[in-house]
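To the wet lab folks,

You asked to see what we're planning to order before we commit. Fair enough. Below is the target structure as tokens, and below that is the sequence we designed to fit it. If anything looks off to you, flag it before the synthesis order goes out.
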């Protein structure tokens, strides 16, 4: 219990770590759901390395970049009204999402063993 409390205190102090832990958990969970529903896999034939790659991408890339994006959006639109929220959402769709999707395709290709040129071609 003490260790859990220390983790909560640490992630409260360093919020980027909370995001890294969250995305490092959510992304492989999504991978497992996709393998179960789309690929019709079971526990015995899951691609655990694929889950690890998703976890690494979620923790080491998505967690920090989303943290920075949320901080930047809060600076650009400090109010919490509907208009500011719509501006944040629209800007994210136009500016952040293409970057995130391209990065996903690029890094997953590299983590699958592809070359730099193959990763560029994937994008």
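Sequence we intend to order:
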């Amino acid at each position: 219990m003490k260790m859990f409390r220390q983790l909560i205190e640490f992630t409260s102090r360093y919020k980027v770590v909370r995001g890294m832990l969250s995305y490092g958990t959510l992304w492989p969970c999504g991978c497992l759901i996709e393998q179960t529903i789309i690929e019709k896999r079971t526990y015995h034939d899951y691609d655990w390395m694929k889950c690890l790659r998703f976890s690494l991408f979620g923790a080491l890339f998505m967690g920090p970049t989303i943290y920075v994006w949320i901080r930047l959006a809060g600076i650009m639109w400090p109010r919490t009204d509907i208009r500011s929220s719509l501006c944040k959402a629209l800007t994210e769709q136009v500016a952040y999402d293409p970057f995130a999707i391209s990065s996903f395709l690029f890094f997953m290709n590299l983590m699958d063993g592809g070359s730099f040129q193959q990763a560029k071609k994937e994008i």
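Structural context that might help your review: The longest helix spans residues 82-111. The chain has one domain: 2-122.

Thanks,
Computational group
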